[in-house]
Task: inverse folding
């Protein structure tokens, strides 16, 4: 149960329920889970180009010749790459930060690979950098830091829009989101 609690969102009761389920009803499932987890811990690493999680030197997106090499989308986590790939027709490249700036937690530019990102900017291949960090204080600070790096290299920098979700009703939107949506409005 203690080992299961290392997973996000898994507290005492959930860990207990999972452990008892595996022990009482699905021991073979537990064995399979342990084999797969052990293999993943040994074989999954980071893409040499975008830093997402993969089992090869380059992930399938970076290895693809059909991606636009002049367009770079910067995200916080590998899950963000999947979300963008599923929801949009974005055909550029990615750079995965594996987090966001958080000085209180000891996460600075070096931990996010921003030195590597600046080296890539210096190569001059990118025409546009799309900042797709989360709309949190840390995500905004990270986006601003990266924006400064890109602008210093003469690279156009854009930010994904934030605001009212499709199908959302204004009365249920928090005031910060609504204010941000108003400040980011565009011509119709």
Result:
């Amino acid at each position: 149960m203690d080992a299961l609690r290392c997973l996000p969102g898994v507290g005492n009761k959930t860990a207990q329920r999972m452990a008892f389920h595996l022990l009482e009803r699905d021991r073979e499932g537990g064995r399979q889970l342990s084999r797969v987890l052990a293999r993943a811990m040994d074989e999954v690493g980071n893409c040499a180009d975008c830093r997402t999680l993969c089992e090869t030197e380059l992930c399938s997106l970076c290895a693809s010749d059909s991606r636009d090499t002049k367009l770079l989308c910067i995200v916080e986590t590998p899950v963000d790459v999947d979300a963008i790939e599923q929801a949009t027709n974005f055909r550029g490249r990615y750079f995965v930060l594996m987090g966001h700036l958080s000085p209180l937690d000891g996460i600075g530019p070096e931990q996010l690979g921003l030195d590597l990102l600046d080296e890539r900017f210096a190569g001059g291949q990118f025409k546009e950098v799309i900042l797709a960090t989360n709309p949190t204080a840390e995500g905004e600070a990270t986006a601003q830091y990266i924006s400064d790096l890109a602008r210093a290299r003469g690279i156009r920098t854009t930010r994904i829009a934030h605001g009212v979700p499709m199908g959302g009703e204004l009365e249920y939107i928090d005031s910060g989101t609504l204010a941000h949506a108003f400040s980011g409005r565009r011509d119709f």
User: Anything to note?
Assistant: The chain has a mean pLDDT of 93. The chain has seven helices and six strands. Helices lie at 12-25, 27-43, 60-63, 78-87, 114-122, 137-152, 175-183.
